[in-house]
Design brief:
Blueprint lengths: L6 E7 L5 H18 L4 E7 L5 E2 L5 E2 L3 E2 L8 E5 L10 H13 L2 E5 L2 H7 L7 E3 L5 H7 L4 E3 L3 E4 L2 E4 L4 H14 L1 H10 L16 H5 L4 H12 L7 H7 L4 H12 L3 H19 L4 H7 L5 H12 L3 H6 L23 H5 L14
Parallel strand pairs: 1-2, 1-6, 2-5, 6-7, 7-11, 8-9
Antiparallel strand pairs: 3-4, 10-11
Helix pairs in contact: 1-5, 1-6, 5-6
Length: 357
């Protein structure tokens, strides 16, 4: 296979960044190199001043450099975590704005998108952030479209929520750069059962969105979630919490910005999408399980909400390729070894060869 240009990624670590999000972003790059048998990606870490920095779980990390002396990168990803508002400095904002003029891709993971928004680098863009910060970002940055999606790729801005969501984003990027077979094989190596995409939303606790001031609304949504197969009439829902139908509709419009029937439909369609992607259940049976009176009605609602019919959604998930593992003789290599050199000792090194042209 002909050599490919190496994509360099710089991870900017902020104080109290979440370690799981960083690992979820880095590990797919390592595995891409291992499975392809060549160095497709190279990555570095930097802190603001180059000094050791602590993750939110107390693990200290020694970065490769300070941001001012970091090597040139194709992508710069800001890794945020807890207390993100206290980590933004004028120096960091100035440096990020400079990077925006030169980096091909600029992004953030977990709460890193808050920093980009503070620097004015997400104005006019859509972005993702951990659900704890959704409301705060919407309030603080009205020129930014904040999405509840697990991750968002908007032109040259790459943002993801926390936890394992950065892995989904990186798998998507690897697939775009080098083909689905490689990203699918990486997913298999990490025992990652399903690669999620930009249409997958974070599961945001309703009590977090509403606080403790709307117990009746929380109770109604709980009833809806428990009755997806046989949806309850809105009049019955209102009676359960001692409200009129009109009061119920006003409450949904005020706090959830939609009608109760629309919210109920959304819950059923999201459940249908999960079943469609994760089970072999037929579309006919799936429609009944999610409270639709007929398959055509289900297909129409599904297409209107997700933009594709359910049949196409299922066909869009290709079967995972079976990767043939070559036999590699392992020889002792003097320490220290680079990450790529260490990968060469693994049985799966070079096992994915049919990369995107």
């Amino acid at each position: 296979m002909s050599a490919r240009p190496v994509t360099c990624v710089l991870f900017v670590l902020l104080d109290q960044f979440t370690l799981i999000s960083l690992a979820s972003a880095v590990e797919p790059l390592r595995m891409a190199n291992q499975l392809s048998g060549q160095e497709l990606y190279r990555w570095y870490t930097a802190s603001i001043d180059g000094a050791p920095i602590w993750a939110s779980d107390g693990v200290p990390i020694t970065p490769d450099s300070a941001v001012g002396t970091a090597p040139s990168a194709d992508s710069v990803l800001v890794c945020g975590g807890t207390g993100i508002q206290n980590t933004v400095t004028p120096e960091l904002v100035k440096w990020l704005r400079t990077q925006a003029r030169y980096a091909k891709r600029l992004g953030g993971i977990c709460t890193g998108s808050w920093v980009l928004a503070r620097a004015g680098l997400l104005d006019g863009f859509e972005c993702s952030v951990h659900w704890e910060w959704l409301a705060a970002m919407q309030e603080a940055f009205p020129r930014v479209t904040v999405s509840p999606s697990l991750f968002t790729l908007d032109r040259d801005r790459l943002t993801s929520s926390g936890g394992t969501a950065p892995m989904d984003m990186m798998l998507q990027l690897i697939g775009l750069d080098h083909g689905y077979e490689l990203s699918a094989a990486i997913s298999d190596m990490f025992v990652y059962e399903r690669m999620r995409n930009e249409q997958d939303h974070q599961r945001i606790p309703l009590k977090h969105m509403l606080g403790t001031q709307q117990p009746k609304l929380q109770e109604i949504v709980t009833l809806m979630e428990a009755n997806l197969e046989e949806p309850l009439e809105l009049d019955h829902l209102a009676q359960y919490v001692d409200l009129s139908r009109r009061q119920l509709e006003r409450m949904f419009q005020k706090y959830l910005h939609c009608s109760p029937s629309r919210y109920y439909l959304r819950l059923r369609l999201i459940r249908a999408r999960q079943l469609l992607k994760q089970t072999p259940i037929s579309i006919v049976e799936l429609a009944l399980l999610c409270g639709f009176v007929s398959t055509p009605h289900f297909s129409k609602c599904y297409r209107e909400y997700f933009g594709v019919p359910p049949s196409d959604e299922r066909l869009a998930n290709p079967e995972r390729a079976i990767v043939q593992k070559p036999v590699i003789s392992v020889t002792r290599t003097p320490m220290p070894m680079s990450v790529l050199e260490h990968a060469r000792t693994e049985a799966t090194f070079g096992s994915v060869r049919n990369l995107k042209g």
